[in-house]
């Protein structure tokens, strides 16, 4: 039987419009380590009503509290939890780990952690509507990849998924970054996925673009967007085209902006507006 450590501390500085934020620690049996997450509950949260949950993921070099500390509008996560009367969970994972389960490294089993350890623990310890129809996931950059991948592979868990400036293809040759950074990310990927990792089509199921057929079959509501000056724009255009070709409904937008917290802060309300149309509050 899995044993999960669940500790809560209150962050008094992270309060907005009466919404509150807990920092929790969850022990992952799969990885034999403890990870942190922030859980935001609206002022209307009580034992009398169960609420939907949004899982909001951070980027490649980020942390569980990025969405509370780095946004350009302080308290925007709290504001969204309050406005939509839902719980928002921001989990922390390892750097450049893409939220998948590595076949090579026991320390990188984040798909299992999110889907089999964190979500059940949140449902156990908070008053959630513990069903697909009341659960959604989105994220930025690497977290956008994680949200699209996890929802595609686990359609029983999520009704809607999104990505802001997401890594829709882990093939760094499509990234508008210096060659040295491309090589660094490729070496990290091969360490986690194996030296024979193939970046050509048909794409690996370890990258979001390799899951477009699952996205079509699942029927999960999808939203993703990217800034026109973002170095990942070609991977998003590729994803958009693949979804058009296989007939998967999705909401795709290119807006002014780059790979910045200003862009993600502005993108979050659009994602909540979209996701709220699909979540169930009963």
From TrEMBL:
Residues 1-17 form the signal peptide. Pfam families: Esterase. Keywords: Hydrolase, Signal. This is S-formylglutathione hydrolase FrmB. PANTHER family: DIACYLGLYCEROL ACYLTRANSFERASE_MYCOLYLTRANSFERASE AG85A, ENTEROCHELIN ESTERASE-RELATED. It comes from Algoriphagus halophilus. One of its GO terms (molecular function) is hydrolase activity. InterPro entries: AB_hydrolase_fold, Esterase-like, Mycobacterial_A85_antigen.
């Amino acid at each position: 039987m899995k044993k999960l450590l669940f500790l809560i501390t209150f962050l008094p500085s992270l309060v907005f419009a009466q919404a509150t934020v807990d920092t929790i620690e969850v022990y992952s049996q799969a990885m034999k380590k403890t990870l942190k997450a922030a859980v935001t509950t609206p002022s209307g949260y009580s034992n009398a009503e169960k609420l939907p949950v949004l899982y909001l993921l951070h980027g490649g070099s980020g942390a569980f509290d990025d969405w509370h500390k780095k946004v350009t509008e302080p308290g925007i996560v709290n504001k969204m939890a309050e406005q939509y009367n839902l719980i928002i969970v921001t989990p922390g994972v390892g750097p450049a780990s893409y939220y998948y389960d590595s076949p090579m490294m026991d320390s990188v089993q984040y798909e299992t952690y999110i889907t089999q350890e964190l979500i059940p623990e949140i449902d156990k310890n908070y008053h959630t509507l513990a069903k697909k129809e009341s659960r959604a996931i989105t994220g930025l950059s690497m977290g956008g990849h994680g949200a699209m991948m996890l929802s595609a592979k686990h359609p029983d868990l999520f009704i809607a998924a999104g990505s802001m400036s997401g890594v829709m293809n882990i093939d760094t040759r499509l990234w508008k970054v210096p060659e040295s950074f491309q090589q660094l990310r490729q070496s990290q990927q091969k360490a986690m996925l194996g030296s024979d990792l193939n970046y050509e089509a048909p794409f690996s199921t370890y990258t979001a673009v390799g899951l477009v057929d699952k996205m079509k079959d699942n029927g999960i509501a999808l939203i993703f967007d990217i800034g026109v000056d973002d170095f990942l724009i070609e991977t998003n255009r590729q994803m958009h085209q693949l979804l058009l070709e296989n007939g998967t409904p999705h909401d795709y937008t290119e807006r002014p902006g780059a790979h910045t917290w200003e862009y993600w802060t502005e993108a979050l309300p659009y994602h909540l507006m979209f996701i709220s149309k699909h979540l169930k509050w009963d």
